[in-house]
Fold each of these.
Amino acid sequence: MAEQAQATDTGPRPIVPWLKLAPKPHLEGIKCACGAMYLDPKRVACSKCGEADKFKPVVLSDKGKVYVFSVVHQSYPGIKTPYVTAIVDLPEGISVRANLTDVDPAQAQKEPHKIFDLPVELVTGVAAKDREGHDVIAFSYRPTKN
């Protein structure tokens, strides 16, 4: 815990442990010796082979495709609605839940076929301030500009 608190004293901090901010923002997974991949860096055993402590960190792609999405119309007080949330499939075989930015919720509802399999890229932004006044960085995905 002291290690985590010390890290927040130096500046911006990621909102989840698998979001790394340097050298450029990216997600980091872990890969078991058997080849299974996971997003949770605190996993102690592989659900595929049962081995423990055979994981190595792996940098995940900043590109993916929308597998499924939902338009959220009701949320926690203070959260602007509607917004689009999705499951994004990454090329490494990991799926990530994240919000989609630069996607109009009304248009997504009218033309859902344009959102499924949509190529997206990872983006980061300030989500809040922590108790010490440092930026808390969150990630989302936006349509690629190709």
Amino acid sequence: MRLLFLANAESIHTRRWVDHLAQAGYEVHLVTWHQPTPFTRPTAAVRIHKVSCPPHFAMRYGTLFELAGIAREVKPDLVHAHYLSHFGLVAGLHNRLFGP
């Protein structure tokens, strides 16, 4: 199963989620606007896709189009967005405009 995880790579919680999912055998792709720190860098099994637009305020629309390209490439079975106020809105807009 291919997972597309949208979250801040600087968060230790993100690292714990994606590492656990990768170790469980899932193909995990992390979309983020931050580079992970040495402390929050996920395992090599997690593929990181860095977007240039932060997913908030007016920049949200730039993130939406960057995400569309990544999702077209990855073809995920499941998308998880972390937090609603940032990537959650982008993921919802993506689903509404481009379908599941």
Amino acid sequence: GMTADLQRLKPDVPMPKGLTIEEVKDEEGLRDWCSVMAQVFETPDYATDAMLRSYRAVGFGKDKPCMHYLVRMEGLPVGTSSAIFGGSAVTLANVASLSDFRRQGIGSAATVAPLVEAKSRGYRLGTLAAYNMGRGVYQGLGFVERCQMGIYIWSNK
């Protein structure tokens, strides 16, 4: 688990040429977002469909408790992130990039976009749960490790 003081956020991260970050605002964007998530996390179709239905039910827009971001490289969906707004902190989740596009700054860009939005809303604290792969990226943006957590995944295999 990591936290960051959003007042100290380093929003100017280098972005590769051709990279864009967009807020998911409609069904088409959400489908692209889910497609990237499914590829990165090797999510089975039934779980991807459930994710699509649940996020669709929450809706789109800055007035919602959750916003999703889609990162594109030359128009191709290659990365994702989400911000969950609540209480006194914003939680960053679903930071992912396709394996062929890693180590190009996509993770940093996908992390900063929701945090900039949170800061503009008056949030001062950002939280996230980091995998080892992303820890260095988050530390470079000002996140500090606060705890370690275990993840337990049930399988009927």
Amino acid sequence: RELARLEAGSKKYRHPQAQVPWIYDGNNWWTYDDPASIANKTSYVKSNLLGGVMCWELSGDTSDIRLLSAIHEGLQ
């Protein structure tokens, strides 16, 4: 996938407060979620007694569903 290629060839940064990763390759900027940012978000959901989470779409998830699994594990 495109993101895996970008992660391998570019420096990955993480926003210190939001804890979401981003990549800048000198021309393009991408922000996205990874299992660590999802864990942070689900922790926020649980600690604030919110009703759950939503996903825009999952077509960018890995074949072993790392992102969906992070949501499931985080809400347990």
